């Protein structure tokens, strides 16, 4: 599941949503909560990931969030980017 700590903590609501992941899957798959609850866990997690990516890809802020998630998942350095940014100056 893509994850990156959000920076926009100022407008949080004072309530905890307990079924937000289920709601994402329900809307994405066009099914009801009972069908979500009957899903195998691997299928549920797959659709939750897909729904989360789909919803975040709709806004500029969401796309930035997904880019940060992707960046945090990388395990190999971007050598070309490092060379370009830290190129030795001079002779």
Keywords for this structure?
5 helices, 91 residues, single chain, mainly alpha
Concise synopsis of the structure shown:
By secondary structure, the protein is an all-alpha fold. The chain has helices spanning 20-29, 33-37, 41-56, 60-73, 79-85.
Would you write up a description of this structure?
This protein is mainly α and 91 residues long. It has a domain at 37-73. It is 57% helix and 0% strand. The chain is built from five helices and no strands. Helix 1 (20-29) crosses helix 3. The longest helix is centred in the middle third of the chain and has 16 residues, at 41-56. The mean pLDDT is 88.
What's the structural blueprint in terms of helices and strands?
Blueprint: H1 20-29, H2 33-37, H3 41-56, H4 60-73, H5 79-85
Helix pairs in contact: 1-3
- The succession of helices and strands, N to C, reads HHHHH
End-to-end gap: 46 Å
Poorly predicted regions are none
What percent of the residues sit in helical stretches (DSSP H or I)?
A: 55-70%
Global morphology: elongated
